[in-house]
Amino acid sequence: MISFRSRREESSSLLMARRAEDYPYPYPTGWYRLASTDSLRRGEIRYLECLGKQFVLWRERERGEIHLMDAFCPHMGANLARGRIRADCIECPFHQWQFAGDGSVEHIPYSEHPPAGSPARRYPLEEVHGQLFLYHRADGASAGDAQEPPPYPVPRIPEMDDGSFVFRGHRNFGRVGMHIIEIAENAVDTAHFQPLHGQFRLPWTQIPIPKVDIVHTAKWTLDEDAPWMMHFDDEVALRIFGREYDWTHARARVSYYGPGSLLLFRITLPGRGEIVMYQTFLPISPLEQQIDLRWFADRNLPRWLVWYVIGNWASQLPQDAAIWQDKVYLPRPILCRDDGPVHQMRHWYQQFLPVESTATDTDRTHSPRERSTPAA
Length: 376
What we know:
Blueprint: H1 13-22, E1 30-36, E2 45-50, E3 53-59, E4 66-70, E5 84-86, E6 89-91, E7 98-99, E8 105-107, E9 125-128, E10 131-136, H2 158-161, E11 165-176, H3 181-188, H4 193-197, E12 199-201, E13 208-222, E14 229-240, E15 243-244, E16 250-257, E17 262-269, E18 273-285, E19 288-298, H5 303-314, H6 317-324, H7 342-349, H8 355-365
Helix pairs in contact: 3-7
């Protein structure tokens, strides 16, 4: 796990207060990765605090199915994370009520009259390529409570489904002191790429390689067919001792599914093959994100090449994190003509925020001339 900040560098309480006040609502609507499937053993219970809520993630002993519930027993409020798994039920540590994965009461040791229905609130999960995702709604409803299903699924990788790609690795990047909107703003702020990411570094490290630069040619677009999506395209090449070489060229398309919680990278190495990577952000608190990477590649791509490409991207993350941890959110940034479409992206982003906060954020961010109806 990478540590992005030492204790000596902790932000002052004054700075933290300003950051907390200025940023938009911290838990926007979207898909959020909670864990990798194989990290949860049969019979294990895991307590989670994220998205402004408390959950228990648990796995049945016999069938092995995984469930997500409110952390607190609906009977008398005990924390179910202190309980245990009995066969295919989770047992409360307080009065030993047992709940099935659908939230219903299966057994009460001192009564033959369990309450009807499913009193334990559960949250449906979607498992995709070894990862568990929750669809969180900013209005507080779970995917199971809402009458409408999620407007889009977690994207699958077709090449994994047909067997032409294989799993190649994952990395827990730890937690970064940032608001989740920063990763969305990162896509339109193309002006920061050369000063922040123009120096080539040894993959997976912060060790610079002298006289080797990364040249970025980037653009941002909204998806015409899927209003919840935006794309960031980057053509990259290495400049070695002042000269660019064709064999170093690569293309990356980063597709944002929702507010920045779920990014899908497709990296094309001309004449060699492709790499696809999930990058996910999970809000642990308003200004703290858990970052995870999970990648797959053409089975014919050499492992060393996949390691090199993903490691190069990973070496750039700490540079962004160093800025994100100390910056503030400016509702009305002073932009020049050559800056990216920050206002347009922020306007698009409003669709993921609660209705009551959208008007406030829009009023802060846009002049009346710039407002229009956000994508639904």
